[in-house]
Every structure is written in structure tokens, then in C-alpha cells.
Amino acid sequence: MFDLTFTIEDKGAGTPLTLAIDRAVIAGWTGRDPVARDKHIAELEAIGIARPASTPIYYRVAACRITMADRIEVSGGDSSGEVEFVLIGWQGRTFVGCGSDHTDRKVEAYSVTVSKQMCDKPVAPVLWELEDVIGHWDQMILRSWAVIDGARVLYQEGTLDGMLPVTDLIARGFGGKGLPDGCAMFGGTFAAKGGIRPASRFEFELEDPVLKRNISHGYDVIALPVLG
């Protein structure tokens, strides 16, 4: 278990809250539209990654992989980020944030679970109450940008109506119950525009067009040499 201090944003005001995170879950293949979901599966198959055993699927990684850092270090040049909404359970409440499921793609070709465990999972430092956005959940937008060869490009974009309903996603992963206290769950992603590829920097946001606010974060990717 380790502590992360977030700012809980409500009506323009921010309140700090320290949450003890003891479980991290990466939900994969969470698309509501089977055609769009299969597009992402095919995208991964094209780089040698096997189809999942089930859809959705809930991978476990070490909770200490979650970070608010503005830079991460990775082994070699085969990793990349994915923007996702993040849900955190705490004392009967559920908070919504935004993060990147940074993953080693080379390792992913032989073990998805191991590939996800290899990389830190950056998250933005701001959270919203789920109950404040559940009524317009499907209208919210996830976006990411990647800095590739010095150019910042739009990498992913989509509205949450492309994902399984959030209550359904939680229920499937936790036996019909709510999100456990101290559990942080990443909620799935969209296909990358132009295909999956590494970047020197990754930026992401969750936009709420109804309440006119957004959660954003970015981080540099430092590729460490692989010498043997």
C-alpha cells in the first residue's frame, strides 16, 4: 500500500485528498462496439500480440507502478502510452481521473501481463467524483498526443460512449460489487491514429464538455539502453 495525494475538483474548487492505493487493475478490450474493439485487437495482432482470453479482461499490476511523475524510464525503445480514464475507490466513493497505461510492446508479444508490469503508469493529479459525471458519462472525451521525431501529433481521441458503461465495467471486474477501497482501475483505450508507435513524450486528457473542465497530464519517456 502507498499513498498518493490528489486534488478533488468540485465546482471549480480543489480539495487535497490522500488515498492509500493497494491494488492496480488494467481493464483491457473494454469497447462497447464490437467492431471498434476488434479493430484495436487487430491493431495489436499486427505487431504480434495475441488476442485476449476474454473481453473485457482485467490485468493486475503492482500498485506502486502508479505515479504522478512527469518523466518515466523504460527499457529500450519499444514502449508506448495509451490514454485511459482511471477509477479509484475510497471509503464507499468512486473517483474519476485520467492516466496512461504505458506498455512495453516487444514484451507484450509474448505476455501482456508482464509487459504492463514493466512500465510505470502515469496519472494526472486531479480527480472528479463519479456521481458528478455519471449522468453525462458517454459525452466525455479522452485524447492523447505523442511527440514523435520532434513533432506533437494527435495520437488518440474518442468519446466514452465507445467504452462499456462504467457501472458495467466495475460490476464485471468485481463480482457485481462496487470498486473496492484502495483500488485504482484503468478503463481501456482507443485505437492509435496511425498505429501504435513509441514517442519521446506523451500527453493526455479527459475532457468534460458538459461541466466545461478537463484533467490533463504529460510525461517524458526516457529510453534506457539495452546492453544485453
Automatic annotation (TrEMBL):
InterPro entries assigned to the protein according to its UniProt record, in alphabetical order = DUF2848, Fumarylacetoacetase_C_sf
Single Gene Ontology MF annotation: catalytic activity
- Lineage top rank: taxon: Bacteria
One Pfam family this chain carries?
DUF2848
Q: What is this protein called?
A: DUF2848 domain-containing protein
Q: What organism is this sequence from?
A: Bradyrhizobium lablabi
